[in-house]
Amino acid sequence: MADAGGRLERQSSDTTRSSTSEDARLLPTEQFEIEEPPSPGPSTNSPHPPGPPPKRHTITPILPSIQHLPIDLIQRLFPTRTSKRAAAASLLLLWLAAFFTPLILSTRPVRDSAGEYAINLSCVDTLFPRNSCGIDGTSCAPFANLSVPFRCPANCAPVSVLEPRPVGPQDVVYRPLVVGGQPHYRGDSFVCGAAIHAGIVSDAHGGCGRLTRVGERDSFPASDRNGISSIAFPSYFPLAYTVTEDPSIPCPRSDVWRLLALLATPTLTVLATLFSTSAPFTFASVFATIFAHTAFVSDPPGTSRHSLSVLPDLVSLFARRLLPASFCAAVIYRLSARRTLEGLTAQLEKVALWLAGFWFGATSNYTLDHIPIQRLTPHDLEQQPGAKAALAAIVAVLALAAGGQAWHLRAEGRLPLFARGYGALGALLLVFVLLPGVSLRLHHYVLALLLLPATGMQTRPSLLYQGFLLGLFVNGVARWGFDSVLQTTGELRNDGAFGSPVPEVLSVVVVPGNGSDNSIAFSLGGETRGADGISAVVNDVERYRAFFADGPEWANFTWEGRGGGQMDEYFRFAFISDGMVLDFSGTGTWLANGTYIAPEPK
After folding, report:
1. Are 413 and 37 in contact (CB under 8 A)?
2. Of 194, 373, 507, 536, which has the fewest CB atoms closer than 10 Å, so is most exposed?
3. CA separation for the pair 19, 427 (Å, rounded)
4. 3-state secondary structure 137-201
């Protein structure tokens, strides 16, 4: 009994010591996360010796004495937690003043010498919107004798049309819609693109000018100026305009104010990353300030053209997107960024990898602008030159990065969990692809959310990948918002083709005359099921509409030549359904010598 009792006592004591020792070795709280699987202990029944236990990656700083200098400096200057919090609050207040004061001053309303407010334009504003001006363009009148001051934002030169836009005999796509040049531009040209081409405003900073409608013009020569190649149109158009400087408009020195706003956020993010070892503070301050920087400065969303100042629109869009983005940021931090940043004392590497990657992704409208992929849809990949090769290169880079991350996750013992999670995500995306009537769109923010969990470890590649993906998320949401992952064909089409039937030109009769008395008559036909009528466009302006219910005369269209035998004219035809103009036929050309050249079949 004594021996048994002694053995029992010793067993109890050993159990107590084991429990105490286990408690002493408890891991920090953040390791008890959903994604952290339990580490299996050695099995006495296993015929094979256990493998190496999972490990958690940590970065050992290169030249630690140098990388710890910012931490030591902060500790000497602000030795207490209260003093550190006061310093952080002061830094954020200084950023608010340095960022928003220039922003307010640079976006205030401006008026010309006559007291008329300058119209705020977006990069795609035009006087003659496509398919919106009615017969003969009357809805976009007046065509002449009107002059208004205007103001353009920065970064309008790269803004291009993403769907083929007819300009006479050619279809323009993936280039700025600027037709003609000094002294006048065609009425459907992007006004801010034309102002940059004319040298009136700067692409880097925007600016002010004066627009004057000058009525119909009959020649729009092309030219290369200030980084924009304009488009030639060798015929007449009912509306043309000029853009000129107007010294009476007190346009703010947006270059100075913009420079101050541009410097404020990078300075704060470098300080918050370099001098802080607090993962929550670094993550929250960098995320919030770069989000604001993107929404207001580097890639602001489009705003209302008739507002006196663009700032109220920008503030409204910023507030609308910040709250859901902040919720996403909290989840990202909990599941990914905390594991990467917490306990990291390699301050210079954190700036060079994580913060630099963040900025690279957040400014992707500049850094990735040369990649020939505008939208990740099958239509765009087929249409844009070089898009397939670029996509193949991106997929190869992603595959290499994924392989490296999988290796590190395996070392941490988390690869099976991630394999199951991404397998489930892949199955869900496949279901989305198979859903009828909608298309899967992997927006910037969606790609970031899908890939960020795999960066939740403290390795140097993870620092870089995580920063870049966070930047992509910020850029996508701050600029475009939370667009749906599933979008209908109409949403994706924008102003592109419907894929509808087009009218057939059955016969063409040219009636010669004297001077401008020439005329041309078309006999039209084709599959009319589902259509209500027909539309005829001459020189990219709708000139004729007829409906089937009015009788067989809809099939006959006669045009009295306005070129006077001096210039070519261009004809296209489309069916109408429910008041909407569907796809147009190819462009037929009536040459100045009276010859008609039919379009090539599509």
Report:
1. yes
2. 507
3. 43
4. HHHHCCCEEEEEEEEECCCCCCCCCCCCEEECCEEECCCCCCEEECCEEECCCCHHHHHHHCCCC
Q: Which residue has the higher pLDDT, 594 or 33?
A: 594
**What kind and span of H or E run contains 244?**
strand 237-244
- Under DSSP, the state recorded for 484 is -
How far is it, in rounded angstroms, from Cα 152 to Cα 121? 5
Within 10 Å of residue 230's Cβ, how many Cβ atoms?
26
Parallel, antiparallel or unpaired: strands 580-584 and 596-597: unpaired
Specify the length of the chain in residues.
Answer: 602
What pLDDT was estimated at residue 337? 96
User: How far apart are the C-alpha atoms of 391 and 368, rounded to whole Å?
Assistant: 13
Distance CA 62, CA 159 (A): 43
- Residue 30, pLDDT > 80, answer no
CA 138, 144, 148, 152 dihedral sign is: positive
Q: Is 501 helix (H, G, I), strand (E, B) or coil?
A: coil
Closest CA to 273 of 332, 325, 346: 346
Nearest Cα to Cα of residue 322 among 350, 352, 354, 290: 290
Question: Residue 73: what are its φ and ψ, rounded to 5°?
Answer: -65, -45
Query: On the CB side of 235, how many CA atoms lie within 13 Å of its CA?
Result: 23
Give exposure, 128-165, as e/b (b: 16+ Cβ within 10 Å): beeeebeeebeebeebeeebebbbbbbbbbebbbbbeb
Please answer whether residues 161 and 128 qualify as being in contact, where contact means their C-beta atoms are separated by less than 8 angstroms. no
- 146 contacts 212 by C-beta, under 8 angstroms: yes
φ and ψ at 525, to 5 degrees?
Answer: -160, -155
* Strand partners of residue 575: 534
Task: Report whether CATH 3.40.50.620 matches the domain 504-597.
Answer: no
Among the listed residues 282, 413, 401, the one whose alpha carbon sits nearest the alpha carbon of residue 343: 282
Q: How many CB atoms lie within 10 A of CB 121?
A: 25
Lowest mean pLDDT: which of 47-56, 106-115, 309-318? 47-56
Say how far apart CA 278 and CA 574 lie, in whole Å: 63
Tell me if 260 sits within 8 A of 98, measured CB to CB: yes
- Exposure on the CB side of residue 112, measured as CA atoms within 13 A: 16
Q: Which residues of 300-321 are buried (b: 16+ CB within 10 A; e: fewer)?
A: bbbbebeebbbbebbeebbeeb
CA 113, 118, 123, 126 torsion-angle sign: negative
Full-model pTM: 0.80
Task: Answer for the pair 516, 565: CB distance below 8 angstroms, yes or no.
Answer: yes
Domain boundaries, the chain: 119-244, 316-492, 504-597
Here the tokens at position 88 are 């952080």
pLDDT in tens, 70-119: 999 999 999 999 999 999 999 999 999 989 888 888 888 888 888 899 99
Superfamily covering domain 119-244? LCCL-like domain (2.170.130.20)
Q: Provide CB contacts within 8 A for 307, sequence distance 6+.
A: 120, 313
